[in-house]
Write a structure and sequence with these properties.
By secondary structure, the chain is of the alpha/beta class. It is 37% helix and 22% strand. It has a seven-stranded parallel beta sheet with strand order 6-5-4-9-12-14-15, sandwiched between helices. Helix 8 runs parallel beside helix 9.
Length: 263
């Protein structure tokens, strides 16, 4: 890049870079555009005012939109306390001796941090961060699904991943999602991962969805399955009574995690 770019061209380029899912630094933008640090900071402030990014110390990171979900290590910062509560509450749904599937997602990572201390279980997963956490517990048998590594998410996806799930008969599948609604069911962002989620639902006897309150009534771009596929939804106390009642009336058992359960 050169300093000949106009302000609008620089800002458009910043938005393009953020769509790649990686946070940007002021220093890197200064070098790329050949402009001053003050100019870059003005650009970032302008874009933040338009709700097109979130400024951070030394740079910027992408915002979640209906079409885009940030990388998992950025999502981990969102609603962290709620995710911890949901993860601990959902762990209480796992019985000793069960075979379970654990999906991709930051709330799921909180879940696996709570399932391994005492129970003898088998965990099937396609997410590398889950495996790195579960290996701490020798009482857990880990089955890592094969497939193509999605490097931005560290998940394994593709036909090999989906097909291998047909060889298992797990008790429960614990899923992460992008959104849940009465009309559109459960939805998410990446088609490759959605195909794997569908295979997880087909394989398991029971489907448990972990979703903080911000995902209720949200619709992500691609449908995973109808709401009738969900047996239990574990969410946090930010979900309204109206939302919970509507989901219950649709046949979903809604479990609300509370701060008391976290402790």
């Amino acid at each position: 890049m050169t300093a000949t770019l106009t302000a609008s061209q620089r800002r458009a380029r910043i938005c393009e870079l953020l769509k790649e899912g990686k946070p940007l630094t002021v220093a890197a933008l200064v070098e790329s555009f050949g402009v001053s640090e003050m100019t870059v900071r003005r650009d970032l402030a302008h874009l933040e005012a338009e709700s097109r990014l979130r400024r951070t110390r030394g740079g910027a990171e992408p915002l979640r939109t209906e079409e885009y979900e940030p990388l998992y290590y950025l999502r981990a910062k969102e609603n962290a306390q709620e995710k911890r509560m949901i993860g601990k509450t959902a762990a209480g749904l796992v019985n000793d001796g069960e075979v379970i599937i654990v999906d991709v997602g930051t709330t799921l990572l909180e879940f696996v941090r709570n399932i391994g201390r005492n129970k003898q279980i088998t965990v099937i997963t396609n997410w590398i961060p889950n495996v790195l956490e579960l290996v701490k517990y020798p009482n857990i048998r880990i089955v890592m699904l094969g497939g193509t590594v999605r490097d931005t998410e560290l998940s394994l996806v593709g036909g090999m991943t989906s097909e291998s799930l047909a060889g298992f008969n797990p008790d429960k599948a614990f899923l992460g999602i992008g959104g849940v609604s009465l009309e559109k069911g459960i939805t998410d962002y990446n088609m490759d991962e959605i195909e794997v989620k569908r295979a997880m639902i087909r394989a398991a006897r029971q489907t448990v969805v972990l979703a903080d309150h911000t995902k209720i009534d949200r619709v992500a771009p691609v449908r995973i399955a109808p709401l009738s596929s969900v047996h239990i939804l574990v969410t946090d106390s930010g979900a309204t009574e109206r939302q919970c009642e509507a989901l219950q009336n649709a046949g979903v058992n809604v479990v609300v995690a509370t701060p008391e359960q976290e402790g």
